[in-house]
């Protein structure tokens, strides 16, 4: 694997292979000594132009558990805040001997630009770009679904036939875009539920069903309900009347949660707005995988870094 930029271009075998490697990585994390010597001598740079807690720490933990050297780069307080371009920053990292660059950027397409520009020879891993994609989040979500659905027999299993409902701020979410393509590749059926104002203008090319009625969709007893955070920091207009109205119509409140089958998995990529898109009862229930997703994120990112730095580095984007 040369780069990991998108799930849209990730084939079925590649996706299953990555999830299987993540399964192996998860097994090593149950041992007393969690660290592996696999990437000793490699340098991984976390190049974050946007604030992040979960993703940055997860990538840092993943790299360190593979014995890589980690350099954390934040745009705030760096030369970027003084006007340095992405190209100059990238070439500085190249001069420092970076083997892999994990990039999070507010501009959609920035990781692809970095990967295809020829500015650096390092592998590039997209940790979220604008409202475009967040591939490792989708992979850890799929890993979590597979593990919950199949347990210890998850090896070599996909998500064929599963019904996944994704609810909330579809318009601004890079997580949902990566999930739509990956889940479709793995055989799941996806339904997006949101107010019309929080859906992209054109989703005709997406392999999904669209609904505006959460209650109607939940009556179909889906296998997974994933709630998305309302990204108020990206909103410059009023996309719904108020938070109370949003929660009443599109939130997984206590009443809706109580009507779900006990087998339905409840997910959230975090951070959560409790009481808005999800109630505390649902978030803290045994059906919730919120904490598992965080744990599984380290294993999935270990797998991605391993395949990026020690696997067959083909020239594919």
UniProtKB/TrEMBL annotation:
UniProt GO molecular function: amino acid binding; aspartate carbamoyltransferase activity
Domain Aspartate/ornithine carbamoyltransferase carbamoyl-P binding: residue ranges: 2-146
UniProt keyword annotations, A-Z: Pyrimidine biosynthesis, Transferase
Keyword Disulfide bond: no
Binding site for L-aspartate: 82, 174, 229
Chain positions recorded as carbamoyl phosphate binding sites: 54-55, 104, 134, 137, 270-271
Pfam family, one: OTCace
Reaction(s) the record says it catalyses: carbamoyl phosphate + L-aspartate = N-carbamoyl-L-aspartate + phosphate + H(+)
Subunit description: Heterododecamer (2C3:3R2) of six catalytic PyrB chains organized as two trimers (C3), and six regulatory PyrI chains organized as three dimers (R2).
Name of the protein this chain belongs to: Aspartate carbamoyltransferase
Gene: pyrB
């Amino acid at each position: 694997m040369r780069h990991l930029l998108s799930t849209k271009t990730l084939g079925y075998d590649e996706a299953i292979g990555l999830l299987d490697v993540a399964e192996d990585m998860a097994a090593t994390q149950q041992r007393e000594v969690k660290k592996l010597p696999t990437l000793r001598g490699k340098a991984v740079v976390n190049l974050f132009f946007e604030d992040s807690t979960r993703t940055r720490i997860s990538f840092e933990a993943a790299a360190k558990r593979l014995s890589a050297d980690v350099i954390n780069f934040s745009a705030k307080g760096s030369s970027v805040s003084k006007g340095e371009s992405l190209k100059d920053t990238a070439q500085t990292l190249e001069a420092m001997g970076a083997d892999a660059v994990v990039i999070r950027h507010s501009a959609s397409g920035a990781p692809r630009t970095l990967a295809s520009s020829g500015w650096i020879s390092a592998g590039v891993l997209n940790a979220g770009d604008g409202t475009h994609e967040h591939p490792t989040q989708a992979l850890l979500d799929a890993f979590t679904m597979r593990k919950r659905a199949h347990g210890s027999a998850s090896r070599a299993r996909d998500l064929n036939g599963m019904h996944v409902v994704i609810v909330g701020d579809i318009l601004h979410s890079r997580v949902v875009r990566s999930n739509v393509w990956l889940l479709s590749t793995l055989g799941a059926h996806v339904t997006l539920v949101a107010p019309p104002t929080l859906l992209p203008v054109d989703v005709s090319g997406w392999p999904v069903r669209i609904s505006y009625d959460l209650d109607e969709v939940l009556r179909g007893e889906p296998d997974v309900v994933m709630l998305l955070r309302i990204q108020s920091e990206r909103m410059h207009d009023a996309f719904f009347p108020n938070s109370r109205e949003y929660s009443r119509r599109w939130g997984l409140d206590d009443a809706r949660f109580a009507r779900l089958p006990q087998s339905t998995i409840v997910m959230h990529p975090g951070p959560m707005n409790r009481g808005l898109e999800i109630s505390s009862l649902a978030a803290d229930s045994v059906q919730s995988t919120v904490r598992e997703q965080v744990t599984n994120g380290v294993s999935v990112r270990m797998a991605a870094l391993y395949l990026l730095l020690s696997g067959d580095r083909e020239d594919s984007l």
